[in-house]
């Protein structure tokens, strides 16, 4: 047992609410927007999902770290969350395939966390008051000092983060001899999306966030374009909106996931908005209204498209609707080979109900 876990830590929310607990991970201080994920498994995939960049993650599952850390179960090159809040922080783990403990993993990657928190009470508070900035510290316990540090943290509304998590260099994924070539605009892409393309005979080339349509077209001449998931406020990304508009103008097959969905909406003059506390978990019910079919989905987003604007648009039609809150979960552009969903069909972690969307994209490129 690591001695760090016995040290006190404090979590302070922007509205002044305070939770006390024990230090987890590196001793230090971290800030970010606090949000919660209701998934019962897949904590490592959540930690490494670039869409969570800049966010303090509250795990609603009572045990985190209990099956250790495996070097293979990552969605990107490093941990992306700004910090972790959990109930039971399990340093001892029970899986032979694991490479290290969660404590070693967090220390190597300088991640600050807090455990022994009443996460049920915390989640009920966030659900009621909405997502807000927060600070975790295991080195500063003075609340006035923490309030001053928290006041300096940027607000997620209007924050552009994708260029910070995107690849700096282009790279390829899959076989060069594959039937289809897909250009991936990396705004925070998850590895399992690329694996799903590889499984479907796709050779993908992944481009930095600010690459133009003309550059991708000239360099790769792809069969289709994929606009990835990612963190931050989509309306703060004029460069990506412009790229999506150019892809649509050239009438190329286009598929967007999560942030890619929001950008496809913005490219069709449909605004986005920050949600009260977003959707994050593995069990969100979504209805495909085209085929009258329901699917259980994996989700992670704090922004969404404005439903009234989608319904009023003459450019797009609704394909998927969230059965919990009626938010828009999927659209397709009329008279174009372009569609998108707000949730994660690559579902890592999560159910595999929505993998057919990758096949739909392949069919558009045929």
TrEMBL record:
Chemical reaction(s) catalysed: L-glutamine + H2O = L-glutamate + NH4(+); hydrogencarbonate + L-glutamine + 2 ATP + H2O = carbamoyl phosphate + L-glutamate + 2 ADP + phosphate + 2 H(+)
Keyword Amino-acid biosynthesis carried by entry: yes
Annotated Carbamoyl-phosphate synthase small subunit N-terminal domain residues: 7-137
Region (CPSase), start-end ranges: 1-180
Alphabetized UniProt keyword annotations: Amino-acid biosynthesis, Arginine biosynthesis, ATP-binding, Glutamine amidotransferase, Ligase, Nucleotide-binding, Pyrimidine biosynthesis
One annotated GO biological process: 'de novo' UMP biosynthetic process
Active-site residues from the entry: 258 (nucleophile), 344, 346
Keyword Transmembrane appears in the UniProt entry: no
InterPro entries attached to this UniProt entry: Anth_synth/Amidotransfase, CarbamoylP_synth_ssu, CarbamoylP_synth_ssu_N, CarbP_synth_ssu_N_sf, Class_I_gatase-like, CPSase_GATase1, GATASE
Residues reported to bind L-glutamine: 51, 230, 232, 259, 262, 300, 302-303
EC number(s) stated in the UniProt entry for this protein: 6.3.5.5
Entry GO MF terms: ATP binding; carbamoyl-phosphate synthase (glutamine-hydrolyzing) activity; glutaminase activity
Pfam families recorded: CPSase_sm_chain (PF00988), GATase (PF00117)
Record pathway: Pyrimidine metabolism; UMP biosynthesis via de novo pathway; (S)-dihydroorotate from bicarbonate: step 1/3; Amino-acid biosynthesis; L-arginine biosynthesis; carbamoyl phosphate from bicarbonate: step 1/1
UniProt enzyme class: ligase
Protein family per UniProt: Belongs to the CarA family.
PANTHER family: CARBAMOYL-PHOSPHATE SYNTHASE SMALL CHAIN (PTHR43418:SF7), MULTIFUNCTIONAL TRYPTOPHAN BIOSYNTHESIS PROTEIN-RELATED (PTHR43418)
Record's subunit section: Composed of two chains; the small (or glutamine) chain promotes the hydrolysis of glutamine to ammonia, which is used by the large (or ammonia) chain to synthesize carbamoyl phosphate. Tetramer of heterodimers (alpha,beta)4.
Main function: Small subunit of the glutamine-dependent carbamoyl phosphate synthetase (CPSase). CPSase catalyzes the formation of carbamoyl phosphate from the ammonia moiety of glutamine, carbonate, and phosphate donated by ATP, constituting the first step of 2 biosynthetic pathways, one leading to arginine and/or urea and the other to pyrimidine nucleotides. The small subunit (glutamine amidotransferase) binds and cleaves glutamine to supply the large subunit with the substrate ammonia.
Protein name: Carbamoyl phosphate synthase small chain
């Amino acid at each position: 047992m690591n001695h760090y876990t016995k040290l006190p830590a404090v979590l302070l929310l922007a509205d002044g609410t305070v939770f006390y607990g024990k230090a987890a991970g590196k001793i230090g201080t971290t800030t970010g927007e606090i949000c919660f994920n209701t998934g019962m498994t897949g904590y490592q995939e959540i930690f490494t999902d670039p869409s969570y960049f800049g966010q303090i993650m509250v795990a609603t599952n009572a045990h985190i770290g209990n099956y250790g850390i495996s070097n293979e179960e990552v969605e990107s090159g490093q941990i992306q969350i700004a910090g972790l809040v959990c109930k039971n922080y399990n340093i001892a783990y029970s899986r032979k395939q694991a490479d290290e403990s969660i404590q070693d993993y967090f220390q190597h990657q300088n991640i600050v966390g807090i455990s022994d928190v009443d996460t049920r009470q915390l989640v009920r508070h966030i659900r009621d008051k909405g997502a807000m900035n927060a600070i975790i510290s295991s080195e500063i316990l003075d609340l006035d000092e923490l309030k001053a540090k928290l006041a300096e943290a940027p607000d997620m509304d209007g924050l552009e983060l994708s260029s910070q998590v995107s690849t700096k260099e282009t790279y390829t994924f899959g076989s060069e001899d594959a039937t289809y070539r897909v250009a991936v605009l990396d705004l925070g892409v998850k590895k399992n999306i690329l694996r799903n393309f590889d499984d479907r005979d796709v050779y993908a080339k992944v481009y930095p966030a600010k690459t133009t349509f003309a550059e991708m077209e000239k360099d790769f001449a792809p069969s289709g374009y994929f606009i990835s998931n990612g963190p931050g406020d989509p309306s703060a990304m004029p460069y990506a909106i412009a790229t999506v508009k150019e892809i649509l103008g050239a009438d190329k097959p286009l598929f967007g996931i999560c942030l890619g969905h929001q950008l496809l909406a913005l490219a069709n003059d449909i605004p986005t908005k920050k949600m009260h506390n977003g959707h994050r978990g593995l069990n969100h019910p979504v209805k495909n209204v085209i085929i009258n079919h329901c699917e259980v989905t994996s989700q992670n987003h704090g922004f969404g498209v404005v439903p009234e604007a989608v319904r009023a648009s003459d450019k797009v039609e609704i394909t998927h609707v969230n059965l919990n809150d009626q938010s828009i979960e999927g659209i397709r552009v009329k008279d174009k080979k372009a569609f998108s969903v707000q949730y994660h069909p690559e579902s890592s972690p999560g159910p595999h109900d929505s993998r057919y969307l990758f096949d739909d994209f392949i069919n558009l490129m045929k």
